[in-house]
Amino acid sequence: MGQEFVLLVSSTVFCVGACGFIIRKNPLIMFMSVELMLNSVNFLLIAYSSFLNSLDGQIFALIIMTVAAAEVVVGLAIILTIFRTRHEMDVDQINALKG
Amino acid sequence: MFASSWLILLFPLTGFIFLSWYGKRISKAFVGLIGCGTVGMSFLTSLVALSDLLFLPAEEGVGKVEVLYQWVSAANFKLDLAILVDPLSVFMFLIVTGVGFVIHVYSIGYMQDDPEYSRFFSYLNLFIFSMLVLVAAADFFFLIVGWALVGLASYLLIGFYKEKTSAVLAARKAFVMNVIGDVGMVIAAFMIFESFGTLNFIDVFDAAPEMFRPNDDQILLITLLLLVGAFAKSAQLPLHTWLPDAMEGPTPVSALIHAATMVTAGVYLIARCHVLYELAPFTMYLIATVGVLTAIFAGTMGMVQYDIKRVIAYSTMSQLGYMFLAMGIGVYSLGMFHLMTHAFFKALLFLAAGSVIHALDGEQDIRKMGGLKNIMPLTHATFLIGALALAGFPLTSGYFSKEAIILSSYHAEMGNFVFWAIALITAGMTAFYIFRVYFATFIGKTRSPDAHPHESPLTMALPLVFLAVLALAGGFLGPLVDAFLAPVFGHEAHHFHDGILETIALIVGIGGIATAALMYQVSKDRIELMKEVFAPLYDLLFHKYYVDEIYDFLIVKPTKAIGTFMEEKAEKQGVDFAVDQVGFQVKEVSRGISFWQTGRVRTYALNMVAGMVIILLFVVFM
């Protein structure tokens, strides 16, 4: 498994996540896309940790997972509240912050 | 030794604070008691200081500085909280507290019906305190503090009838004029500190003779700037316009502040700084010239006014001119002596005029008075005594002091014929205008039959009698005053004797009185005719030489025009415009770029990705 492969996989997964986040309107799917992006980075970190014989990358990956978990908690709570009040799940309709 | 002298200042201050806080909650009688009592105590303490001073051995006769503690000590600047107790300051203490006490007592009767009785007395006490600070100061710093405080007290008291627009305007005018003087004083104090490194009177006066040759630029500038303050406070040309207007205040205020005490502060200042002025003969000459010009200028204006208080106000200006003349020609103790006798007879004249005004329910126009001689015998007698003293009738106090100044103006080293002649003419005019008022007010038949005048109550009558005695007999204190003040001025004033000149002055004075009597005898038509013949002159005098109008045209109007112009151009079109534009432009720009903020999460994400791609491209290809 060479570095090129790792980079290719990682960036592919990241692009899939990014495209998914931009294209899809369902907040849950968007969340999953965010997770994809985060995990692509995690993958890269862990791979390079192994390439460079350093534990730093793996520790960083753990931190990112923790942050991602926390973020999901908050995000889901927000989504739930919005759904309860507005009974719809289209992010394009939620534009109260329009300038 | 003079530690008790602090009490002189402390009593009126206590009275002021007490009356300000509790004045409304205590009875009028108690307010009067506190107001007069504190000043009376002050006077008694001044007497103690006087006796201390008199029993000093001759070589310590110049008194001493009483230091309470060192107030400021920063680098080479040191300032003590101190008072100077010497013959000159004790002399002023006695006049301020003595005449002040009498006028306080008079105010009990005069202000009896005023709803703001306690406010009046607290202001009066504040004034006495301020004036005492001024004369007790041992350095230029506290001199200026006192100087500004009396200005404040004067402002408050002129504007005492705060519902009256004219009173408020007069108060403002007096304040502004006095502040012009204060600025001169402050600059002078800075220059003194720069030259001498200290503000202490004694140090400055000790060092001055070695430091400067006569008429050095520096000393000329210092004395002239001090003079600005003196002229403003003492209503000398060209800063005199506030004094006649200040008569809007209650009459006791006119008597106390604008006749007997505050306006003499300028004379006191020159006497106090005489060491500096002797080094600047040019300034001395200027003082004498301005003094004598003010004397005749005010005298001519006084001749045509109809307001009883205004006539006396012009005569105050005129007499202050005499004092300045005396200072200018170097006969300091004669000037101080005239200050004292003037305090007596001018306070008396004002209080008697106040008694008349009080009896006529506020009428001040002498054309509507007349025939009060029999109705108000006491007021009549005391006013007559005051008028005689002012006119310099033989053996009254004014005779001794004014005559001495007029003589000196010819015979003294710096005197000359012109000074003497103008002073003499002014003396004649003085006698004329004060007796014009006297005849119009007291003699003949009443001209306002509706009024029911009455003699004033005891609290007003007693001060009148007391001051009348002083105005009659005060002249005999002359040699005593001279000897008492000699240690301060270094020598006794030279008394000149010249039978011819004395006789001429006497004839002129009595001639003035006789002219007034004659004028009163001639019929109304003749007077009207005379007015028409001398119409231009009469108008000029009646409108006070149009000085107010000239100032209005030269200073007030341009200042207002500049103000309006700056408001239009600089304020509204400059500053305001810039501030408004900042807000407006930010808003415009925001409106332009706010289309980025769609509120849609997916757009933001797209923007982020786009940005990321651009950065990546930048990193890769650059």
SSE inventory with pairings:
The complex is a heterodimer of chains A (99) and B (622).
Chain A: H1 3-23, H2 27-51, H3 56-86
Chain B: H1 5-22, H2 28-54, E1 64-74, E2 77-85, H3 87-110, H4 117-136, H5 140-158, H6 165-196, H7 201-211, H8 217-233, H9 242-245, H10 251-260, H11 265-272, H12 274-278, H13 281-302, H14 308-328, H15 332-359, H16 372-375, H17 377-391, H18 397-411, H19 417-442, H20 458-473, H21 478-489, H22 499-521, H23 524-533, H24 535-542, H25 547-593, H26 601-621
Helix pairs in contact in B: 1-2, 1-4, 2-3, 2-4, 3-4, 3-10, 3-15, 3-20, 4-5, 5-6, 6-8, 8-11, 10-15, 11-14, 13-14, 13-19, 14-15, 14-18, 14-19, 15-17, 15-18, 15-20, 15-21, 17-19, 17-20, 18-19, 19-22
The most extensive interface, with participating residues per chain, is: A-B, 14 and 13 residues
Helix coverage percent of chain B: over 70%
How much of the polypeptide of chain B forms β-strand, as a percent range?
A: under 5%
The major β-sheet of chain B equals:
2 strands, antiparallel
The structural class of chain A is mainly alpha
Question: What is the end-to-end distance of chain B?
Answer: 93 Å
Question: Could you state the oligomeric state of the chains shown?
Answer: heterodimer
CATH architecture of chain A: Orthogonal Bundle
Give me the count of strands of chain B.
2
Note down, in words, how this protein is organized.
The complex is a heterodimer of chains A (99) and B (622). By secondary structure, chain A is mainly alpha-helical. The longest helix of chain A is centred in the C-terminal third of the chain and has 31 residues. Chain A has one domain: Helix Hairpins (Orthogonal Bundle). Chain B has 622 residues and is mainly alpha-helical. Among the domains of chain B are: 263 residues, no CATH class; 74 residues, no CATH class. Chain B has a two-stranded antiparallel ribbon. In chain B, helix 2 packs parallel to helix 4 and helix 15 packs antiparallel against helix 20. Chains A and B meet through helix 1 of A and helix 26 of B.
